Amino acid sequence: MSSEVAISVGNLSKVYRIYNKPEHRLVQMATLGRIRPFKEFAALHDVSLEVKRGETIGIIGRNGCGKSTLLQIICGTLQPTQGSVKVRGRIAALLELGAGFSGEFTGRENVYMNGAILGFSREEMDARFDQIAQFAGIGEFIERPVKTYSSGMYVRLAFAVATAVEPDILIVDEALAVGDEAFQRKCYARIEAIKERGGTILFVSHGAQTIVQLCDRAILLDAGEKLLEGEPKAVVNQYQRLISASLEDQKRYRQEIKSGLAIGATTSPKGETTASFWQKDESRQEEDKTSSHNYDSFDENLRSESIVEYTINGAQIKNIRILDESGNAVNSISFGRPYRYQYDVEFLESAENAGFGMAIRDTSGLHLFGQSSGEIGKGKKFNKGEKLIVTFPFLNLLSPGLYYCNAGVGKYEDGEVMYAHRIVDGFVFRVHQFGADLLCSSTINLKAGPVSVDQHAEI
Ligand SMILES: Nc1ncnc2c1ncn2[C@@H]1O[C@H](COP(=O)(O)OP(=O)(O)OP(=O)(O)O)[C@@H](O)[C@H]1O
């Protein structure tokens, strides 16, 4: 293993044996394995991955997809059925609650025991103890048995120990979700500090935002298999599409993701690209370019390369766009000016209680703003064939930079809220620098106007 690599996992598989009754284990032992009264369940199948020193990798996937199993094998607390794991450096792990501490011992005693397991002497832990207790912030509970702790207190102490011992590799399994918001912020700051000093971090989370914000690379696990590995935002987009798909579509998506078809698929089902709408507006763009009132324009080269389109489920969103005050299509816009974010919707089936939404995210995937036409479930009925233009007016107070827009049509059917159609990162726009410098460009905000949904025959 090269010295640049901190973790190397090769063709890892884990098969659990599931016994219907505890005594079946005895039967197996008594018959020297001739009777095998168990079923086998493959929790991991042929997973390989490599984490370089200094990288932060996020693992995302549905419940039961094998994330914890993978981390436990990497930490050495679980044996694989097949495959290899090589680790270079000292690992500190925050695995699921209950692992790591002994309930009968006090917090203080557990801190010292954990330190000893990681190879620290009593003196070395003495030097760190006050800092650990202060970070955990659990007051006099540090002198009480850990079994009396709330889950939040437990995580506070576990995180304080795991990060105070300056690990080369930090492995965190969703644990932070238990702490309160202020503590989570403290933890993320500490994770950032570990990253900055070149530590390697392996991070499991269901939180798409966390993965996008913290990680250099993400891995999507599904049913024990590594489906995708890559840039966090692209991986998270596919994960979100997968978890909100019907069982039937999930199979197809898995195939698409595995074969690489799902990434950067920018074509809508009818073969129209999002850019085709804009080509219709070329004459208007020309007019706009000649007008002297602003620097707004439409940049043909600025296209979203991370579009993820959900299955059409009764409606279709088309032609996502931003229009300036005069109705010109723009994707390079000014600070402080009013615009309309717009898309067309055609209902392919009638839908009760439909609603329309949008969201804006920055390049890291951070959700900045979202708006909807109203609560889904209290919306109108729309008939098959009905065509609409959905408009979200806004005053642009976003700082210069690139932003990605989502569009979604929701409906309420059989007591369930679902997407009739959704496009993630369907449109990208730039807030340009011209004229923004003098304004307060640190504001990350939009001033939204009332959403309108207009019937339209020609879309
Ligand atoms: N000791 C065990 N015996 C049998 N099956 C197990 C055992 N531990 C885990 N499993 C099964 O293996 C699969 C993977 O479990 P794992 O805990 O790794 O998933 P996960 O992705 O971490 O799930 P979650 O997001 O819910 O924490 C699940 O279907 C789980 O039921």
TrEMBL record:
Task: Provide an example Pfam family for this protein.
Answer: ABC_tran
Composition bias type Basic and acidic residues, residue spans: 279-291
Per the record's keyword annotation, is ATP-binding included, yes or no?
yes
Domain (ABC transporter): give its ranges.
Answer: 27-248
Write down any Gene Ontology CC term: membrane
A GO MF label: ATP hydrolysis activity
The record's section on PROSITE patterns has: ABC_TRANSPORTER_2
User: What InterPro entries would the database entry show?
Assistant: AAA+_ATPase, ABC_transporter-like_ATP-bd, ABC_transpr_TagH-like, Bact_Polysacc_Export_ATP-bd, P-loop_NTPase, Wzt_C
Q: Where is the composition biased (Polar residues)?
A: 265-277
Q: Which Gene3D superfamilies match?
A: abc- transporter (atp binding component) like domain, P-loop containing nucleotide triphosphate hydrolases
Q: Which UniProt keywords apply?
A: ATP-binding, Nucleotide-binding, Transport
Q: Where is this region: Disordered?
A: 264-297
The family note in this entry says:
Belongs to the ABC transporter superfamily.
Name of the molecule in the record: ABC transporter ATP-binding protein
For this protein's source organism, the top of the classification is: Bacteria, Pseudomonadati, Pseudomonadota, Alphaproteobacteria, Hyphomicrobiales
